[in-house]
Automatic annotation (TrEMBL):
Organism, as annotated: Desulfoferula mesophila
The protein's name in its UniProt record: MEDS domain-containing protein
Domain named MEDS: residues: 19-180
Domain of life: Bacteria
Length: 212
């Protein structure tokens, strides 16, 4: 049985509530737009950002962020943008433990906030789990533990990325239910607001991102 990480004191009630969002994408344009908007907002507000990369690699992320006018090299030098390999974070010593992963995430987050005070933003490329023999129920436990042990006690915005083609539909339905909602997919530059996505279409069916 997974042990529970020790909870920290809750943040002041005046702080904005922490968020746990997900994007289940079907096309690279979707995750690029979401990640660009998510990290741009954080960096603009002076929030340290952590990207756990796997399928979506550090060079590709930096390239499209730089093309959007963000200086990723300068942000990394200032400690405002950090990249870590998702598989090393989640699969430590070739073993996945939800509690160990939460502890590692807390350690990295505290290190980032020690250098830059405020709120933390985390983008987690969860596609590392598609190429393993990991029991997906253990991954769902990790997502659930985030809701119970991280969000109530730490000022953080979490964005989990899943590629729809890599995971079973039933598993992705459970993933959706463990998040506060799907991240909005912004339109092209200058096109106005994004496209907010509900957990389902009202009939317990997953939303079809390809139709957007």
């Amino acid at each position: 049985m997974e042990s529970k990480p020790k909870a920290s004191p809750a943040p002041p009630s005046a702080a904005a509530p922490s968020r746990h969002l997900v994007l289940i994408s079907e096309h690279p344009t979707q995750w690029r737009r979401v990640v660009r908007a998510f990290l741009r907002e954080g960096l603009t507000q002076g929030e340290p950002c952590l990207f756990l990369d796997c399928l979506y690699t550090r060079p590709s992320v930096c390239r499209f962020l730089d093309q959007a006018g963000l200086d990723t090299r300068a942000a990394q030098k200032r400690g405002m943008l950090t990249f870590l390999a998702a598989e090393e974070m989640f699969n430590q010593q070739a073993v996945f433990s939800a509690a160990t992963c939460l502890g590692a995430l807390l350690k990295v987050g505290r290190g980032a906030l020690h250098r830059q005070r405020g709120r933390l933003r985390v983008v987690a490329d969860m596609n590392w789990a598609a190429d393993t023999r990991l029991n997906h129920r253990r991954l769902l436990l990790y997502e659930e533990m985030l809701n119970h042990h991280i969000l109530p006690n730490h000022p953080v915005d979490l964005l989990c990325l899943y590629d729809r083609a890599l995971f079973p539909p039933a598993f992705l339905e459970r993933v959706l239910a463990l998040h506060q909602g799907q991240a909005a997919i912004p339109g092209p530059a200058g096109a106005g607001g994004g496209l907010p996505l509900p957990l389902n279409d009202g009939n317990h069916r997953l939303p079809r991102l390809a139709a957007l």
